[in-house]
Amino acid sequence: TMKKIIITLTTLLLCVSFIFILIHNRLQVIKEISYSPECVVRKDSSIIIAVLGDSWADNGRKCNLSKMIDDRFKEANIITQTLISGMQGAKTSQIYQNMFKDSTINGTSHIISKYPHYCVLLMGLNDLNGQYGHEYYAHHTLLMVKYLNSMGTIPVIYKIPNVNYLALYNKYPITKKFAYKILSYITSGKMSLNNRELYNESMIDSLENSNAKYIVANADFLIHKNTIYLQDEIHLNEKGYMELSKSIYRYIVSSNY
Fold first, then answer.
1. What is the Cα–Cα distance from 83 to 57, expressed in whole angstroms?
2. CB 69 within 8 A of CB 249
3. Rounded distance, CA 57 to CA 251, Å?
4. How far is residue 67's CA from residue 80's CA, in Å, rounded to a whole number?
5. Is the separation of the CB atoms in 216 and 200 below 8 Å?
6. How do the pLDDT tens digits run along the chain, 257 residues long?
7. Distance of CA 79 to the CA centre of its chain
8. DSSP per residue over 76-141, as a string?
9. Residue 148 in 3-state DSSP?
């Protein structure tokens, strides 16, 4: 009947519109926000370490990751002040934009304005899970690195960790899984739900082709183990953050910066 035809066509139109919006959002990248290079003056004698990112950073703040890091350095007679801010579900584009906003709207400018010596970046999981594409991830990471360098800060970028992605995608209905595979093909050229290695390689290539100063940290020591992850198999528990604090310490003390 005509009513069924209209309902079917309307449903198809809504599906096509929804897919178009998803694709459009994933092809939109943030342009570099203008800023003036800072004349860096640090009043405090301690080493300031910022930890910024998505839920990994935010959960770390709740688990007292800052104290874990500071205690690790204290054991080596190094005084540090660790400042943490994270935004649940944030993609790299949002983390970059937040660097120019104040704390009342998830901003982190109040931390960056302290001119941290190092800035640990915990991010990329939401880019990957949402199939935003490896170029999207690499582009916004480079923008962050360039801006942090202008503030006299050395970024410590953790590669996207090898968490249990299937645990996340298995919760999705078949139609949503298929839609994400299509998005993956459009943004990364592969119909795969886990393009982690492609994202990490693209990010490293982008940085290597710049004149930026940075440290790329390997998160493979956090390969999925029930003992260091929460029940969702995506986020770290307190023991996991203790392992992360040790890793952050090792990368900073062994760096050339």
1. 10
2. yes
3. 17
4. 10
5. no
6. 777 777 777 766 765 666 666 665 666 677 888 887 677 777 778 999 999 999 999 999 999 999 999 999 999 999 999 999 999 999 999 999 999 998 888 899 999 999 999 999 999 999 999 999 999 999 999 999 999 999 999 999 999 998 887 777 888 888 778 888 888 888 888 888 889 999 999 999 999 999 999 999 998 777 666 688 888 888 999 999 999 999 999 999 999 88
7. 27
8. TT--EEEEEEE-TT--HHHHHHHTTS-GGGT--HHHHTT--SEEEEE--HHHHHTT--HHHHHHHH
9. helix
β-strand pairing of 47-53 with 80-86: parallel
Dig out the tokens for 34 from the structure. 């203008």
Return the number of other C-beta atoms located less than 10 Å from residue 4's C-beta. 8
Tokens encoding 229: 């992850």
Cβ burial of 255 (10 Å; 0-12, 13-18, 19+) is middle
Which pair of structure tokens corresponds to residue 212?
Answer: 């930026």
Tokens of 54: 């998505």
pTM of structure: 0.88
Element (H, E) at 213: none
Q: How far apart are the first and last CA of the chain?
A: 72
Residues facing 241 on adjacent strands: none
Identity of the residue numbered 168: L
**Cβ contact 32:143 at 8 Å:** yes
The SS3 call for residue 195 is coil
82 pairs with which residues across the strands?
49
